[in-house]
Amino acid sequence: MKKNNIFLSILGNLDVLVAALVLTILITLTFLGVIWRRAFGAPFTWLEEVQLACMVWIVFASAGAAFRYGNHVAIEMIVDLMPQKIQKVFTVIISIVVVAVISYLFIQSIGFIQLFIKSGRTTPMLEIPYTLIYGIAPVSFILMILNYFYALFKGVKSEAKEAVESE
């Protein structure tokens, strides 16, 4: 039974694990790039391409987790000042807007991925396909919507809201 819980925990936090792994790669390669450039006078000419790919993957891999843990930027102060009934109405309106915007971004990302597939475009030095770099975007948008509703139904609050309520 315990192995099953560990497996589910890893699966549920796979986005965070991927982002952490890619961040580790980014930091390590950047550090080595500085050392190589300063100590040996031989910069990694390909480093910028890898850094770009890493940053894209970190942002998109961690976006769903930010929803899940209530870490997205939100301006809740005005809604919190309203009566409970109006707050519930605003929660529904905000949910509709969030899902609409993320759905729009999902559709647009599919178009971009298709464009990259058709063109076969790659990075200049390492020839990394742009479909590989930006292919995480559609997956991320789906995870954002799922995690948004997970956080909404679980009652996850932003860190700022929790800090105010704990005082």
Descriptive overview:
This protein has 167 residues and is an all-alpha fold. It has one domain (2-166). It contains eight helices and no strands. The mean pLDDT is 89.
Task: Kindly summarize this structure in a few lines.
The chain is an all-alpha fold and 167 residues long.
What labels describe this entry?
167 residues, mainly alpha, 8 helices, globular
Structural class: mainly alpha
Reported for the largest beta sheet, the result is:
none
The figure for the number of domains is 1
Give the strand content.
Answer: under 5%
Round the mean pLDDT to the nearest integer and report it. 89
Radius of gyration equals 20 Å
Quick one: overall form?
globular
Order of SSEs, N→C?
Answer: HHHHHHHH
In whole angstroms, the N-to-C terminal distance is 39 Å
Query: What is the count of β-strands?
Result: 0
Helicity level, as a percent range?
A: over 70%
How many helices? 8
Unreliable runs: none
Set down the secondary structure blueprint:
Blueprint: H1 2-12, H2 14-40, H3 47-68, H4 77-80, H5 84-119, H6 130-134, H7 136-154, H8 159-166
Helix pairs in contact: 2-3, 3-7, 5-7
